[in-house]
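Hi V.,

You were right to ask for the full record rather than a summary. Here it is.
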Amino acid sequence: MVWDTANMEQLDQSAQRDGSKEVVAVIEAVIGRAGYGWGVRELAEELGASRSTVNRILSRLVEERLVSRDASGAYIVGPRLKVLSAALQEGHPLFAEGTRILARLSRASGATALMAVETGNPEQCFVLASVEPDAPVRYTLPPGTNLPTHAGALGLAILTRRGTRGLPEELKKYTEASMESRTRIENALKSYDTMGAVVSIGQHIPDAAGIGVPFTVNDRLFGSLSLSRPRNEFKESDIEAGAKLLNEAARELEALLTDSASSRNKWQVLPQAESSALIQRVAVIIAAFCSEPLAQLSLQDLSSLWGTRSVATRRLAESVRDVGLMTTLDNGGAWTAGPTLLQWSSSLGSGHDLPQLVDEDLRELSGQTGETTTLALYDADSHLAHIGRTIAGARNVRYVLEEGEEIPLTAGAAGKAILAHLPEHVRTRKADEAGVSTEELGLIRTQGWAATDSERVPDAHGIAAPFFVNGIVRGSVTVTVPNHRVAGTPPKELTSAVVATARRLSRLLTFKSARAPAAHEGNPGEQESERGIVFAAAQ
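Predicted structure:
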């Protein structure tokens, strides 16, 4: 993305100044540097911006947890961005169902099956997902990879649906087979109509060949499917069968997208920006469309999200659209998720390890208290909990609990903090079996934390608070303290620190607004099963 330093002086003070491009450029740079991070000076030079501007943006992004700092102080992808990436992949049919369709295509053809979506740049598309065959030699393109639209089956297939508007007359030649002008592209597109598919042999990568077909994501966004293989394995006799497979898959994918969009759930409560800072408003729209990828928001919805009036809302919406975070639908009255979010998610992937996502918070709590801190994770299917992460305390006498160890829900603070918030029928059954009183569990729910003395670890006090994902209890955070340091009721500063950490985890991991429960349903934490547990729990 081209950096533009205009209108940056008051980036965080005024949402009416167009700084969306600069914010997105910084996020994209961080995502694009997997494995190691950026220093402020280095990133500023890369983007052609002042160090003060880049530092200000990075600092704000760290506050939103979209960016983090590693042990060396370099800026890396933050846990919140990983959470939202996983949510988008779980909720969008292109990821959730598209990968299944690609796997079927790859098995049937013995080729690499790929899906691409156009970006906001007419000359580019990107690989959203790919499935490779079990073969010693295969065509490989990682998700998130940018590709030209005028060279290769994936890009050319998109042009058959979108047209050549926006392409320059002279185009880059990647190989001897590349078409170097828009006129040649337009002539080729006409010939593809009679074939029912695009065929590209060595146009982008010399040793690769592919067949591609387009599909429609929404009114303003198009994608493509392809079967690609090494050039020496490509046979013209395979084109007809491959085109048939791809067109059937494209129709299936379009039907899934249409059905999912028509049955989408409308938010009962829209998340709202907590301040007027542009980066906070950008963060809110990222979270909104990652949690509901097919949502269609009106300008009134956007005004509610951002706390802006109509003119400012439209100006900011157009700015966010221009950087690809949103797309305007043809009816002009609705806005939906844009290609930039899809590309970020395809690059970041899903299945992020939950203990790693919250490691920074656990270490902070351990450093603050000096005590051993543990993360307990609850599995609603098995009704079991285990220790997912342990951070040893800094004091001379400390307790170290083994990661992966199963813990009871009816003994010890970590388990009881979870048990108190389980659905009533589960809570009552387990409490009755173990002789845990309903009064004790009620007190835990009321005060927000549990404290036990030597119930699991001899001569140790446990203080724990539950954390929730989308309103559902997912586990607890505990500090374990030798009894000689805690006499009777634990001090308020200790319980407050544990509760504050648990709440930070809930905010970090939640990506859907919790539904307000009906009068007979109890509190939101008692809902046991709902879409939203999208993280891998360390065993």
